[in-house]
Design brief:
By secondary structure, the chain is an alpha/beta fold. It has a domain of 224 residues: Rossmann fold (3-Layer(aba) Sandwich). It contains eleven helices and 13 strands. The structure holds nicotinamide-adenine-dinucleotide (NAD).
């Protein structure tokens, strides 16, 4: 990614008060971009005013819902880059409140695409999809071209639908959209009140001196991505111009680690802690797709993006952040 790709450019981030969005806002502003965030601060989701406290004088914040056509029409005008991160991200909430998830994800995405088509058809749009779109993967690592997408829960189903809308607008209207399927991301600015976002939740338990509860036999593999690397992948997709348009890319490390090994790494990084194996609650078991590791050959080759942060370093930086700022997160 060229160093100056964002310097002097206008960027919009939907969901910019949330975990990934606020980290991205800080990075883009640091790269000289003129950053606007749009967020509805929906109760119980990851938006947090503190996430932007150190950049609030450098960015513009719009309090609006991504389903609000008028607000979105205004927000997209004149933007070079649009990062669509607004969404409901809690797997359990998506099953309990399926219409909310569907409405935010699908109406929100369609509203953004339509308002871009009418008001700014030249913007580059990057969508933050999820590895959960694959569902249970028979042969690892999962690749964009060969692994079927068979999502299990509502969150993943609506995310795959939103991804397909992005790709359809590219095909039918020439919208300059592309999609990432992001794996389990962790780091500073993630909500810490609820047990979703597995790495951050394990970190909270360890920091509180509670045993980390690892479900099942702990052998399930996941691919854990540090948020700085995730932001770099979103930016690489935005900066890559026509190479990335109409494409979907895995954004992950390409390496699997079990939940049990993750718990041990967190205990090491925290300097203390314990873990215990607990049975899966029925509802969690039904939503659990099993092991996941991504093939990252495509994103490496086409976008020249590669993750840089070793897990041990990412964990230490995350723990240091919450030691300093935990009053704002739990
Ligand atoms: N965190 C991960 O591990 C991960 C992995 C894969 C994909 N993603 C995707 O990345 C995106 C960002 O995730 P995150 O972890 O930062 O979540 P987050 O909950 O921290 O942030 C999402 C933000 O979107 C806002 N939002 C929700 N509905 C909105 C609406 N209708 N209008 C405007 N704003 C709205 C929320 O208020 C929140 O601030 C999501 O789309 C998520 O599905 C995240």
């Amino acid at each position: 990614m060229a160093e100056d790709s964002f310097n002097g450019k206008n960027a919009l981030i939907t969901g910019g008060m949330g975990f990934i969005g606020s980290n991205l806002a800080a990075k883009l502003a640091g790269n000289g971009a003129d950053v606007t965030i749009l967020d509805a601060m929906i109760e119980g989701l990851g938006g947090n005013q503190f996430n932007i406290h150190d950049i609030k004088n450098k960015i513009k914040a719009i309090a609006a819902d991504v389903r609000d056509k008028k607000a979105v029409a205004e927000a997209v005008k004149g933007k070079d880059f649009i990062f669509h991160l607004a969404g409901q991200v809690d797997h359990h909430r998506s099953v309990g409140q399926p219409f909310e998830d569907l409405d935010i994800r699908c109406n929100g995405t369609l509203t953004l695409l339509e308002e871009c088509r009418k008001n700014n058809d030249d913007a580059k749009i990057v969508y933050s999809g999820t590895r959960a779109e694959y569902g249970a993967v028979k042969k690892l690592p999962a690749s964009e071209e060969e692994t079927p997408a068979k999502p299990i829960g509502m969150y993943a189903i609506t995310s795959l639908a939103a991804e397909n809308m992005m790709l359809m607008y590219n095909r039918l209207h020439g919208t300059r959209s592309c999609c990432l399927r992001i794996t389990n991301t962790y780091g500073p600015r993630h909500q810490m009140k609820k047990p979703y976002g597995i790495v951050n939740w394990f970190i909270r338990l360890a920091m509180e001196g509670k045993p980390i509860t690892v479900m099942g036999d702990g052998k399930t593999l996941r691919d854990y991505l540090y948020v700085e690397d995730c932001c770099d992948a979103l930016m690489a997709a935005a900066a890559a111009s026509e190479k990335s348009e109409g494409e979907t890319f895995n954004a992950a490390t390409g390496t699997g680690l079990s939940f049990l090994e993750l718990a041990k790494e967190i205990i090491k990084a925290n300097g203390r802690g314990d873990y215990k194996l607990v049975p899966y609650p029925d509802e969690t078991k039904q939503l659990e797709p099993g092991s996941f590791v991504a093939d990252i050959g495509k994103i490496r080759k086409l976008l020249r993006w590669t993750p840089k942060t070793p897990l041990s370093e990412g964990l230490k930086a995350t723990i240091a952040f919450y030691r300093k700022n935990k009053q704002h997160y739990w």
